[in-house]
Amino acid sequence: MKKTYRVGIIGCGGISHMHTKWYLAEERTEVVAISDIDSDRLKAYSQQYDIGETYTDFVIMLEQSDLDIVSICTRPKFHAPLVIEVAKHQVKGILSEKPMAENLGQARQMVEVCRKYQVNLAIDHQLRFNSPYVVAKQLIEAGEIGDVFRLHAICGGGDLKDNATHTVDLMRYILGDLPVEWVIGQIDRQGTEVKYDLYSESFSLGYFKFFNNIRGIIESGNDTAAGYHHIFCYGTEGEIELAVPEGPMIRQRTSSTDGKWVTPDLPPEISPVKDMVAALDTNRPHRSSGEQGLATLELLMAVYESSRRRKRIYLPLEEPESPLTLMIEAGWV
Fold first, then answer.
1. 247 contacts 175 by C-beta, under 8 angstroms
2. Residue range 252-274, pLDDT digits in tens
3. What is the CATH number of domain 128-268+296-329?
4. Cα separation, 117 vs 120, whole angstroms
């Protein structure tokens, strides 16, 4: 009989319900313990999902509940310290919410500590499991649109760290997690925007040069072109469009379709939890591993750093702090 993985959840706010439902849908996981500093919310959550072990102190939960997997569903500023502490308690896997961390220094430490304690770290960029984006990746790998030369992505209404982190991560995923050579970007901050306790911006624009000379453009914020996780993939033999505004989630056109848009069939989706189970079973990285989360966060931070330094930023990015925070605290924006 295959192992059933014991799960604990830290933080019982809105996003945690998505995690819990994933675990309930996976026959080889069981949510046995939850932790939240709000005792009333903790009680309501335990009753809603019939979870017996409840803790207002997550460290006690880790010490007493013999957990295999922990989901971290707190506010972003707690992601890094919680991942680091959880990794030290002999769990097998961690699924932490995005954004991965406040800055690149924290994210690198998260990856290093999880590597040291042999913990399979995943960052919840769950759209990597969304069928239209999976199919787009497969079509590109099969050469259906020839050689890709540009991606143009739009995340209307969202900031880089909270919303466009998904969009940028999808750009990387669609291209097989291809490394980026350099980034140039600009941001606009019209007020005193803060999102989930982190500094935010009104609008951002980033331009990426991938290592095989593919170019990527990301626009996010309050005045973008229409679209949300909307990605245009341009190739020498055709195009793929994803999350079409007021249209299908995916469509393509090539010479074989006589230049007409067609919608490919979509396969069933799996959840990040199912992939975590498979990753633990086979000792492989998660599709949305800590390393991939780090690479995505580096691009977001490089957009900020380019805006701060007014120049093109070659990777790896050296600045460990958030360049956006540095700009704001210096009174530049």
1. no
2. 999 889 999 999 999 999 999 99
3. 3.30.360.10
4. 9
